[in-house]
Amino acid sequence: MRLSRYFLPVLKETPAEAQIVSHRLMLRAGLIRQEAAGIYAWLPLGIRVLNKIKGIVHEEMNRAGAIEILMPTLQSAELWRESGRYDDYGKEMLRIKDRHDRDLLYGPTNEEMVTEIFRAYVRSYKQLPLNMYHTQWKFRDEVRPRFGVMRGREFLMKDAYSFDIDAAAARRAYNRMYVAYLRTFARMGLKSIPMRAETGPIGGDLSHEFIVLAETGESQVYCHKDLLDMPIPGEDTDFYGDLESIVRARTELYAATEDVHDAARFEREVPAEKRLSARGIEVGQVFYFGTKYSAPMKAVVTGPDGKEVPVEMGSYGIGVSRLVGAIIEACHDDAGIIWPESVAPFRVALINLKSGDAETDQACDALYSQLNAAGIEVLYDDTDERPGAKFATADLIGIPYQLVVGPRGLSAGKVEIKVRAGGARQEMSPDAAVKYLVQGI
Ligand SMILES: Nc1ncnc2c1ncn2[C@@H]1O[C@H](COP(=O)(O)OP(=O)(O)OP(=O)(O)O)[C@@H](O)[C@H]1O
Ligand SMILES: [Mg+2]
After folding, report:
1. Alpha-carbon distance 25 to 405, whole Å?
2. Which pTM does this prediction carry?
């Protein structure tokens, strides 16, 4: 992408309304634009990151055996009356009437709808286990939308729903999502810690929140420090094998969010030097809630004994749009964002230090087409800005590699690569630079 033909509205000033660094940087780097309280438009750079995050989430969902669907944002109130949640949900739910005066709502979550889909088609335990997921916009009329996309009113969530014949199978489904979450967040460069959590309006017996530690986090959390350095299950993990040992290794160490924290137990179970009390961001949550929805909504299946039972369910959310903010909270410096490679909007910022100079333009154009041909995403700064401004923009928007090309270097047959994380610089020939950027060596 040539910057001269792109839309990258970076801001020079720090926006006064933004209280935390990720919100400030998202506005300054031109990722988002606020359209109403807690409601954002995603600008070109922002949507690229959002899509990368969503891509990783979907890969890991698929790997764990979940199946993608897409449910609508608007839902019929009828469904929610069946589960009893239409009245319970309160003011957070955006209620809408259509022209026929029928009650609709903008979905804050999808347990009811997915249960309705399930009961329409599935009759037998032989069709289980089943896990269906989608990534869709949600609306919750939060009392205090704040911190940009961290606590929006409209936000993008991946939500998965599992269906099983009995509690033991449901537990295995829960473990699959638990392990998939560990992998998902690690792939985005985040250290996530699963912590015992309250089940809230979703309801149920068993739940973990996946927390990323950050001073600006909204949750107070308590855990054993060893949880910070646990190995991440590999790509070759057998999701239909025994995951209990992976889950148990974590759940036997103390980790709890404020709502379920037990100070006496914390002190009893965790040696003083291993106690961590910190702020954290909830990037995902997994719930097992049994028959809370299937019983009232009559989502039943016949078991091997021919008897009908309500299906055992769980739900599993990831805050896809919140993650953009969470990653920036974890990955930035004074100059701007430092995207982990896996979610970066582009891999390379190609910086032409003297646009208009024939030799420099030619060298940049050649690098640009070679990198494009190799499938590398390049943002090519071919504008007339001063070098200083180009460097500042590249640092601000956080692209992992800067490929700097100017007349002085070229006369010695060299270009420069700067790694955004850490700032290491290296001079090399243009060919070597292409190799380095393509192969990462
Ligand atoms: N208002 C919001 N803005 C952005 N992301 C959100 C918001 N509410 C929830 N999420 C994300 O969606 C995920 C799944 O939703 P869940 O129902 O667990 O949210 P929640 O527990 O109500 O969130 P919170 O406690 O932060 O209000 C959360 O883990 C979080 O990452
Ligand atoms: Mg939650």
Report:
1. 26
2. 0.97
Query: What's the CA-to-centroid distance between 285 and ligand 2, angstroms?
Result: 5
What does the pLDDT read at residue 198? 85
Sorted by sequence, the CB contacts under 8 Å of residue 106 that are 6+ apart come out as: 73, 74, 75, 93, 94, 96, 138, 139
Confidence grade of residue 441 (pLDDT, cut at 50, 70, 90):
low
Determine whether the shortest distance from the Cβ of 420 to ligand 1 is under 6 A: no
Instruction: Quick: pLDDT tens for 298-313.
Output: 999 999 999 999 999 9
Instruction: Answer positive or negative: Cα dihedral of 372, 378, 380, 386.
Output: negative
| Cβ of 292 less than 6 Å from ligand 1 | no
Task: Decide the pairing of beta strands 401-405 and 348-352.
Answer: parallel
Count how many residues are written for the chain. Answer: 441
Rg of the chain, C-alpha, whole Å: 24
Closest CA to 27 of 11, 40, 39: 11
- Kindly state the tokens that stand for 159: 């939500």
Task: State how far the Cα of 96 lies from the Cα of 406, in Å rounded to an integer.
Answer: 58
Please give the backbone phi and psi of residue 165, each rounded to the nearest 5 degrees, phi first.
-80, -30
Domains of the chain: 3-336 (3.30.930.10), 346-439 (3.40.50.800)
